Amino acid sequence: MSEPLPPSRGARLLLERRAIAADQSSATYRAAVITPDERFDYDAVLRSDGTAQLTALGTPASPEWEERLVNHARQAARAADRRRADHLPPWPPRLLRWRAPG
């Protein structure tokens, strides 16, 4: 997993694709919440029905940041069919977002 620059405040929410299902209906990602002081890693399964399942790989992030990561993953999952309709790859290789604290 690549190491994006840690933010000076807030957190970076990272999804990096690992594999795509043969029927393109889902993809597995490595996910992370990266704060100024810590990194929290997850495995994530995103499905084109808009659902996302995350599993912490060690200590999970705070409930607030974990919920933001889940929402980030769900947005990516919901966008898969729209991306496919636009003739784009449904599962991007990498999605990185910054979110402000609070």
Please render the helix and strand layout as text.
Blueprint: E1 11-20, E2 26-34, E3 39-47, E4 52-56, H1 63-85, E5 94-99
Antiparallel strand pairs: 1-2, 1-5, 2-3, 3-4
Features:
about 100 residues, 5-stranded antiparallel β-sheet, alpha+beta, 1 helix, elongated
What does this molecule look like?
Helices cover 23% and strands 38% of the residues. The model has no long low-confidence stretch (mean pLDDT 93). It starts with 10 loop residues before the first strand and ends with a strand. It has one domain (11-91). It has one helix and five strands, in the order ββββαβ. By secondary structure, the protein is α+β, with helices and mostly antiparallel strands. It has one helix at 63-85, and strands spanning 11-20, 26-34, 39-47, 52-56, 94-99. A five-stranded antiparallel beta sheet has the order 4-3-2-1-5, with helices on one face. It is elongated and about 40 Å long.
In short:
With 102 residues, the chain is of the alpha+beta class.
| Largest sheet composition | 5 strands, antiparallel
Give the helix proportion (percent range): 10-25%
Name the structural class.
Answer: alpha+beta
Q: How big is the Rg? A: 13 Å
Number of strands: 5
Give the CA-based shape: elongated
SSE pattern, N- to C-terminal: EEEEHE
